[in-house]
Amino acid sequence: YEKSLSKISYNILESSGDCRECVNDTYIKTIHGSGNYVEPRLYHEPLTDFHSFANTFKANGLFFSSKVVSYELIDYDYYLRNIIPDCTDCKWHKLINLSKDKSSELMIEISYLPQDRFYNIDTDFLKDNSLYEYLTSFYNINIDRAQEFLSSILPMQDEAELLRITTKSPCTMLERICYEKGKIILLQRTIVRGDKFKFKYVFEKTNKE
Which of 4, 23, 106, 205 is 20 to 30 A removed from 92 (C-alpha atoms)? Predict the structure, then answer.
């Protein structure tokens, strides 16, 4: 049944003149001696260096849009308090960004920034630029250390609604803590659709003399 459905979908795309574009975008997978199959696009995100999803998409010439769906200035919340016990020393900017490609939602990025380092956040600038570009341009940040943690999760109801998936759809959560001169200046929690991304680590052996 799956094979038949895939071939039917392929024929529909071919007759509409969109087949070549779909092949280029890897929506159609060709297996020699077997046929052509519909396959969702899978994005690759390298984790070898300090990375930004928006910058990775731009570097590869891929369409990527992002919008701030929520912004508030808070004292703290449960998540922030759990990661940073002394977070009550100042107020925090909390931004929720929703990112997508041409056809579907890809990820939710929740960012926390201390107000004593970033007095104001211009959410209009973030419509066409990444958060890192903004912080570099307006606040001259110098992240000298970062920690990143990956976990497999099921999205909460509000997260699933933003991503237009069910709460049973697997996702990857990336938690990043960024430091500047020993102080936390950015905490991020990114919920990424599991059917859209593959993460890549590369380990290289260094010879010590």
Answer: 106
State how far the Cα of 2 lies from the Cα of 74, in Å rounded to an integer: 49
CA distance 82 to 27: 41
* Residue 201: closest CA among 52, 45, 43: 45
In tens, the pLDDT along 76-94 reads 888 888 888 877 778 999 9
Torsion-angle region of residue 140: left (phi > 0), alpha (psi -120 to 50) or beta?
left
DSSP state of 49: S
Q: Which amino acid is at 119?
A: Y
Residues in the chain: 209
pLDDT in tens, 152-197: 999 999 999 999 999 999 999 989 999 999 999 999 999 999 888 7
Name the residue with tokens 């107000």: 115
Distance CA 149, CA 87 (A): 20
Q: Provide the token pair at 102.
A: 């041409």
Query: 128 phi and psi, to 5 degrees?
Result: -120, 5
115-133 pLDDT, tens per residue? 999 999 998 888 767 788 8
Give 171's Cβ-side CA count (13 Å radius): 27
Tokens found for residue 65:
């849009």
